[in-house]
Amino acid sequence: HAHPTAEQLYESLRQDHPSLSLSTIYQTLDTFIRTGLCRRVSGAGDRLRVDGTPQDHDHAVCRLCGSIFDVDRDQLQLPVPPGQLSNGLMVTGIRFEYEVICQACQEAPGRARS
């Protein structure tokens, strides 16, 4: 599924809601992230990207084109996180991000493979 940026959401909504501002999008996404309705996608560079899928899953980010893909945890054996880290921080979850070269980039003529 898509992992849209705030700007992409703004562009898709502004035709139907001309008074909408990009600031409102950022504020709404911040509220959604804080309340657990969506989560920030890490590894997406300096642009805010969000993920609206509530089920636990991880992401793979293509290091060439920046595309983001969902990775189903059922396919993997992941470590069980401790309840607390040695410095007293309570662990509330764990996420993995895989650096990949996507299929499209692998098949693109002239792209280096590594």
From TrEMBL:
InterPro entries: FUR, Fur_C, WH-like_DNA-bd_sf, WH_DNA-bd_sf. It comes from the Bacteria. Its cofactor is Zn(2+); Mn(2+); Fe(2+). Fe cation binds at residue 58. One of its GO terms (molecular function) is zinc ion binding. Zn(2+) binds at residues 62, 65, 102, 105. SUPFAM superfamilies: Winged helix' DNA-binding domain. GO terms for biological process: negative regulation of DNA-templated transcription; regulation of secondary metabolite biosynthetic process. Keywords: DNA-binding, Iron, Metal-binding, Repressor, Transcription, Transcription regulation, Zinc. Binds 1 zinc ion per subunit. Belongs to the Fur family. This is Transcriptional repressor.
